[in-house]
């Protein structure tokens, strides 16, 4: 088959290191009857690994040349290919047997990782778990605790919906072409009952808070909350946004009429 040249516009870096692939598969721990969907299968290195255990899986791929390769390589009873943009894909459209939930995996393109994670969060109630390869810096932001320099909007919004952990780091040489940064594997398990809150309002509060992260929270949220409301939510008005925990942001959001 003709060699595929990685395309920068799709953020393609193909994982080829067999040891890393084995470690990821071990972390995912697939069972034969799982309903698994892979985002961006690329040259199918991870797909091959998973199909050694899975009876069938789904993939979402934007690159039409790669879709054609996948169609030639796998029978339809083994692989269902969804040709399109993962940012627009309805993951709820994948049929899941009663009593099961969807499992999602993928080597996510770095250039769309944050918007894709937010898109996937809308399907969290239908998902059992997610295992993703991402830029290490992004994973560190996702799992950051309050007080960390990298704790921010991504941390708060994703921690509201998921329990997350950085599993291990993957070096650039595990890919072709090698990226200029380290990557990491993150495990994301949806929280069955997130803290009660309006997600859109929480997003608005967090976005405003972190838009001027060098200022104190009182000044960041001026015009949205009074100092009395900030105190009522258990927040020190002179703290910076990165010092405020998820539960406090939720309490603050719930004060909005």
Structure report:
- By secondary structure, the protein is an alpha/beta fold.
- The protein folds into two domains: 8-190, Rossmann fold; 199-253, Orthogonal Bundle (Helicase, Ruva Protein, domain 3), CATH 1.10.8.100.
- Helix content is 33%, strand content 20%.
- The chain has ten helices and nine strands.
- The strands form two sheets. A seven-stranded mixed sheet has the order 4-3-2-5-6-9-7. The chain has a two-stranded antiparallel sheet with strand order 1-8.
- The radius of gyration is 20 Å and the shape is elongated.
- Mean pLDDT is 93; it is low at 4-11.
Briefly characterize the structure:
With 257 residues, the chain is α/β, with parallel strands linked by helices. It has helices spanning 18-28, 45-51, 64-73, 113-121, 136-143, 153-161, 199-210, 217-220, 227-232, 246-253, and strands at residues 14-15, 35-39, 57-61, 79-83, 102-107, 127-135, 162-170, 175-176, 183-190. The chain folds into two domains: 8-190, Rossmann fold; 199-253, Helicase, Ruva Protein, domain 3, CATH 1.10.8.100.
